[in-house]
# Entry
Amino acid sequence: MPDISCKLEISPLKTIYLLHKIPGNKFRIHYFIPIYSLNENQQWDDLGTGHVSSTYVKHLQGVSLLVRSDSQASLILESKINSNTPYQKQQETLIIWSEGENHGVALSFQDTEGCHKIWEEICHIQGKDPSIEITQDLLEESKEEQLHDVLETNNVFDLPNCELCKLEEIADFITAVLASPIRKERLALILENDDYIKNLLQLFHTCEDLGNTAGLHHLHTIIKSILFLNKTALFEIMFSAECIMDVVGCLEYDPASAQPKRHREFLTQNARFKEVVPITNGELTQKIHQTYRIQYIYDILLPAPSMYEENFLSSLTTFIFLNKVEIVSMLQDENFLSEVFAQLKNAAIDDDRRRELLLFFKEFCAFSQTLQPPKKDALFKTLTELGILPVLKIVMSMEDLQIRSAATDIFTYLVEYSPSMIREFIMEEAQESEDGNLFINLVIEQMICDTDPELGGAVHLMGLLRTLLDPENMHATSTKCERSEFLNFFYKHCIYNFIAPLFATTSEDICEGDSEVGSDENNTHCLNNYQTAQLLSLILELLTFCVQHHTYYIKNYILSKDLLRRVLILMNSKHTFLVLSSLRFMRRMIGLKDELYNCYIIKGNLFEPVVKALLGNGTRYNMLNSAVIELFEYIRAENIKSLITHIVDKFYKALESIEYVQTFKGLKIKYEQEKDRQNQIRKNLHSILHSKILRRSIRVMDKKEENCLKGNSEEGEATMPPLEDDFQDRFKFMETKKTKENEDKVAPPKRLSSGGYKYTSSHSAAAANGTRSLQGSSTVGLMNLPEDDENDKEDETSPRKKPHLSL
# Structure
C-alpha cells in the first residue's frame, strides 16, 4: 500500500447534498466531492469532482464506492469494498485506501457528516466498528508476506554500498522504501546502527570539491528521504554538532532549483549568536545553537505539510519542542534571569543594551510556552517576584520602537498566561502610587498614540485590554470579588483616558466648526481622517464589548456622560466602517432591552442620526443599509413598545416610502395594535369606574332611607296594618321614592387634573311649604370612598395592586 502521508494539497470545496428519490419514499444522499489518486512519484493527482455513493454493483458482486462526474455523468471511480482492504479516515473529512501496490485513492469531504456516512458503509461491509479510524492495521501484511519477511535474508535488504558511483542507486532505493511502512522501520533500524549517514556526508564534501552536481542532487534526495523517515534516533545523528551543517549543505542542492541556496552562509555569518549575559554552561550554548538550526531546517528547507499530513515529521516537531523545554529549564537553573533583571532595572544602561536584553527575554518567554502547566506556573511566579511588571512599565514608556514592541510582546505572554496576576498588580499599584501614573493608563496611552498608519500596535493592545476587562476570566473568592473590584477601579481611574479621543473628536467646538475641520483630512480631530477613524472604531469596539458584559458600570457612564449622543456624531464620517461601529454600539444597547436605555434614547431623540444616515444612503444596498434595517427589524420583532411608539410618532412620515422591506409597515402595524389595545383598556376602565360609582351612590341612598325609617320607629310611631283607605297614600309614597331614585342617577364621571373624578347628581324633595329642586356636584377620589369598604370588598383591590393606567 502506498504511503498515505504523502503530500495532498487540494482546494476546499463545499459539499453539495443531492437528494435522489428512490422507491419506498426513501432518499439516498450523494456527496459532491473531489477525488485524488496517488501516482508513481508519490504525488496526488486530481481526478476531478463528482457524486460519491455506495451501492451494489452486479458485475463486481459486491457493494462498491461509485463516483460519477456531475457535468458528464461519467463514472470516475468504481471501487469494490473488499473485506481485507485497509481503509483509513483522517481528520474526520478524508478517506484513503490502496487500490494496488502503488495506487492510492483519496476522497475529500468538506464536512464530517458526509465522511461519516460513507465510513459507516465501509465499516458495515468489513464488519468493523465505525468509531475506529482504520479498518486494518497498516503495519500488518498478509500471513504470506509476513512469512516471506521472516525468511528474507539480510542480503536482500542490504543498502547499496556508500560509494560515489552508487549515489543514484541509493537515492532510488530509499525513495522506494518510503512506500512501505514496514520497510521504513527496517531501513531506519539499519541507519541507526551504522555510520552510513556520516559516510554519506563525507561523500557530500567530495562531490562539492569535484563540482559533481548530479551527485549533489542525489544527496539532496537521500538526506531529505532520511528526514522523512521521521525517526528521533536518526535526528540525533543528523543534528549533532559535527553533522548538522553538512545536512544543511546537502539540502542546498535542490534539483528543482537552478542554483544552490546559500543557507550555510546565512547560518554562519548572518545569523550571529549574541550572549546578552555570559553563558558559562557549554551544553546550554550548544543546545541553543542546535535548536535554532533545526528550526531553520524545518521552517525553510523542508516543505510545509498540508492539512492532511497531521503526523508529517511529528517526531521532528517533538524534537524541537523538547529542546526548548530543556533550554528554559537550564536557564532557570543557572540563575540567569536574576542577572537579566538586574541589568534591566539599571537606569544607567544604554538603549542598545536594553534592547538586546528585552529581545532575549522575549524569546525566552516564547520558549516558555512549551512548558507544562506546573513548570510554567513556577516560572511566571519567579518572574513576578523578580519584578517583571515594574520593568515593563519603565520600558514601555521609552521612545525606542523596538524596545516598546518587545515589551508589548512580553506583556502579551503575561496577560495570556494570567490576567488575574496583571489585574492584581494594577490595583496594588494604584494604592501605592501618588502621582496617578498607572501601568494600565500607560498601556491605553500607547494604544491611542500608535504611529502606525494601520494601527497594528493599537489593535494588539486593544485585544489585551479586552482580555483584562473580560468578566469570564475574573475569579471570585470568599474574601473578595475580583470582578467588582477591578471594574470599579477601571471605571473610576481609566475609562476617561480610554475614550478621550472620542470626546476630543466630538467636542462642541469641533462639531460647530465641522465644515472647516471636515475639509481637512490631515487634522487628527477630523472624522474623515483615516487614522483617527480607525482609532475611534477600535474604541467603539471595546465600548460595545463593555455594554454587553459590564451592564451596570457602563450604563452609569453612558447616562452620566451622554455617551451615545457623542457616538452617533461619528455617523457623519465618510468612513463607512466608523459609521457601522457607531451603529453597532447603539444596537448592542437596544439589544439589552433595558427600559432605562430606551427612555434615554427617546428623551434625547437619538434615532434621528440613524434615520438621517438611512435616508442619506438612498437606494444603495450595502452594509449600512442592512445594518439600519436590521436595527429597526429587531425592535419590531421584539415588540419594544416604547421605541416603536417613538419611531412611528417621530419618523414614520419620513420612512413610509421605504417599501422594499416590510419593516416600517410592520412597525406601524405594531403601533396601531398597541394604540387599539390602550383604547380598549380606557373604555373598559371607564365602564368599570362608572358602574362602581353608581352602585356606591345607590347604597348610600338606601342606607340614608334605612336610617330615616329607623328613627321614625324609635319616636314611637305606631305601626298599623294597612287599610284600604291608606292604600292610596302608601302607593303615592312608593311612587315618590321611585321618582327620587331616578332623579339621583349620576352622570358619567369626568377626570380632574388632581387625579380624581367629578360627577353631578340632581334630586328633588317635597317640602311642607312647596317643592324646590336642589342640584349639587361633588368630587370623588377613586381611593377615597370609605362608606362601603366592607360591603364592596369583592369589587375592590388594594391600592398597591391597582394598575396605574393613563386615560
Notes: The longest strand covers residues 44-57. Residues 230 and 315 are 6 Å apart (CA to CA). The longest helix spans residues 663-714.
